[in-house]
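#struct-queue
[09:14] JT: dropping the first one here, sequence first, then the structure tokens:
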Amino acid sequence: MSSLTEKDRPIVQLLLNAGTCPRCILRFCCVGSQMLYRHPHKDLMKDLQDFLKTSEEKEDTVCLDVADPPCKRIRLEHREGGAGDLNHNGAVPQAPQADSGSAAVESSAEKVCNVCLGILQEFCEADFVKKVCQKVNSADYQFTSFVFSVSLPPQLSVRERAAWLGLKQEMRNLGLPLAKDDIVQLKEAYKWIIHPQLSEELGVPTDGKSLFEVSVVFAHPETDEECHFLAIACPDCFKPAKNKQSVFTRMAVIKALEKIKEEDFLKHFPCPPSSPKKLCDALEIQCNNGAVFVAGRYNKYSRNLPQTPWIIDGERKLESSVEELISEHLMAGFKADSFNFSSSGREDVDVRTLGNGRPFAIELVNPRRIRFTAEEMKRLQQAINDSSDKIQVRDLQLVTREAIGRMKEGEEEKTKTYSALIWTDKAIQREDIAFLDDIKELKLDQKTPLRVLHRRPLAVRCRLIHTMRSEYIDEHHFRLHLKTQAGTYIKEFVHGDFGRTKPNIGSLLNRTADILELDVESVDVDWPPTLAD
């Protein structure tokens, strides 16, 4: 177990005199034992008081809980007075006296810590842990483990630097080293203390890879402006960023602290820092579950239903969409905050999707419920299908984030099969369209269609019509079955889009042609896996 030795005596005394809490003192003494930090605040104070009362002549190491093997004692002597011994006020420091420990402890016990601003004091107690757990339990999440995160006020980094510089100066005057890299980080110490308490109260273990996150956001308005001098000393470190209410982010402050010269810091900030009047505030206690992904295939039977909500200039054009008809039931079932819909391509509002359907995936954001059996997924699928005659869903299943990538892999190399009802201005006979059946691997140059130019970049795309099969209806109508490369604009292939698609059915037949109906008959993507009925 980690212990305090004679070389820690001046650190303990100096920090206690400055109003530092016992746990922060352990951090600055580089104590790495997690169990020690979990001891009650009062017990730690008493242990520090006993440590300071220990005679300097005692050779044994003083440990806070169990005795470790003794180490070589470092002599605490003053160096000869000189420029190097002056503190930032020009005074010659004296070695801290052990007999003043009792008064320092009594004073520190009543103060808000000048380094952690109370985070390692009040916010490690059982009352706060219960408050966090009540918030978690009231949110009604399903989880089998959790990861705990904490957001600290950026000025804590400034105060920790000030405390360290004060210690560094004192230790230098005593001829003793102080390595900042060995100081236990506040977040790490806080998690050592609170993790087992949260785990016991919630009844599940902590797991750094858990998808369920419990987070606490701390703030300390009283000291918010303590970072501001850094913006004058290091203006390049503080630049406005999107979605940031303040330029004084934790990372910006840390960057500035790495850049600012020690002497400049000492001019602007007291070392050690003074104790504040108030504790930190726990501004937010939040819960968040990692996203759940659901995949399946949908059929669309309506010629008046868009795939996604159709809104132009803030005005909704149609009352529903494929996306909404599916997601409505999934959102309710998984109790999610929001969703993201994606699919293997998309059809126009007036195009049906038949056959085995179009693959789709939905990301459900921050779901309260995450565990569904295969039978429960079937019931969700049935609920979707019973809610509307415009769509049907099949093969509904839970998938991983990585699996969704298979839906998009090589999307343009996949093939799709269509059925188009075509009208011609001039009368046709069966023999006029028979030659279309013999055309294989027809290459098209398709300039971005006029109807999508507002949302797609202008480009010429090369596409393939693999096969065609014509079905004569009457003198002005025939049906054309096509197997094409994914991404081919079928409507434009029929009417030519004012010459933007070459060749096209109109140019091949040497007459005006237009499309009256279009159906997607198959999307040849082997995902998601087919499920048994």
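[09:21] JT: and here's the second one, same format:
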Amino acid sequence: CGRGPGGCQGGRTDMALRCAASLAAGRQPRGPRREGTVRWSSAAKASAVKINEKASREKILTLESMNPQVKAVEYAVRGPIVLKAGEIEKELRKGIKKPFTEVIKANIGDAHAMGQRPITFLRQVVALCTYPNLLDSPSFPEDAKKRARRILQGCGGNSLGSYTASQGINCIREDVASYIERRDGGVPADPDNIYLTTGASDGISAILKILISGGGKSRTGVMIPIPQYPLYSAAISELDAIQVNYYLDEENCWALNVNELRRALNEAKAYCNPKVLCIINPGNPTGQVQNRKCIEDVIHFAWEEKLFLLADEVYQDNVYSEGCQFHSFKKILYEMGPEYYNNVELASFHSTSKGYMGECGYRGGYMEVINLHPEIKGQLVKLLSVRLCPPVSGQAAMDIVVNPPVPGEESYAQFIKEKESVLNNLAKKAKLTEDMFNKIPGVHCNPLQGAMYAFPRIFIPSKAIEEAEAHKMAPDMFYCMKLLEETGICVVPGSGFGQREGTYHFRMTILPPVEKLKILLEKVKDFHIKFLEKYA
């Protein structure tokens, strides 16, 4: 090993390791030079082989030994089709020719990635909180500085870089409670029932962790809508709970029918203990907005059957169709009277990621939990304290969502202009998407009443289904993969959200700019017609 005439003398272990590495790499190790040849002893060879065998021992963590609940988790929004889209993007960067010049990722509701501009006031306040020296700058309006100072006063050391209370900064929770009261027409909200979270997803997962218990037939069942947002099925799998599906009525604009809830509940009682009912309003991926009567029926059903209600309301600002209006479950619950309001346990969720803000990366959110047992409140705070606190910049962003400029403040006019521009644009794109999809043979799209997605039903010919099965793929996954490979458009197959057997869909965001959205829809139309011709 180049250590002198003794070769490995005085450094056998070191030499053997390096010899092993050389062997593994297919190289001859260095040794004492004798007439231009390299030689090493049989003992050194044996030692190297032995160490090399040890170096390649069996891994501790394998697919067989890993947590089976994690292995069962699936999240279609970032699943195989998105990985394929990433591969295609790399090929395009290398100059490999495709029938298109870019991949359009219409698979996820990431507004800013699709070109939506941030709300100026929100970014100003977060910038001031992040770099307080800017508080002396004349470039920032006083109403933004006022909010930044208040947030910083709630932070340890007046710094956004400090930990906060696990439940979140107190003044921000107070602002959330005030926002809820304004939104719900004076229905009281207690800051002590507000928990700031890392996006809405963090709150949903935390509540489910506390709710799920039991074993065998007493294992907790969680009722979720089908189609659903895959966070729910993923969390249920991870927690080893029982998923109980109830189907939305596609023929009636994805309405929620209490008779269907009752069917799902009664069937589930044979194999689990259903005690959680999840509602997504406005719907994701389906875009329906529930009317007041529907919400009343759901609340009565939860009260009657003693179910804990989870109301996912992150799209509460995204309502487009005439005659549709967002009603919070909290408000309707209160208006149904004390028998309901004092007894039904409800957790509702909001986020900075959707609405007109689109601030997905800040991971800001909150949940309000009412009628929680006092001892369970302590357990929830304990659970949340394990992750210390939600991102403090996300808490600051959430504060601006619930405490925006008001009439009379200098930033109000610009704020309202930007907010209305985003929401009006989304309403226009919702109608455009619905109309264009319904002009394509073999495609049907319900009205996009809210949220930011279309979930059209697509006809897939039997020959295409057979080919999909030959490739061991779901038919709509096969369809979406072909769409990606031929047009560069990335959408998510309906099988990732759940759908009635024998029906096929995909979810597509309506977030791209109008002109790009028109091109995208035309490409989908051309692809679908060719797909039908090929497999008819």
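[09:30] RK: nice, looked through the second one.
[09:31] RK: The two ends are 70 Å apart (CA to CA).
[09:31] JT: good to know. Residues 1-13, 31-35 have pLDDT under 50 and may be disordered.
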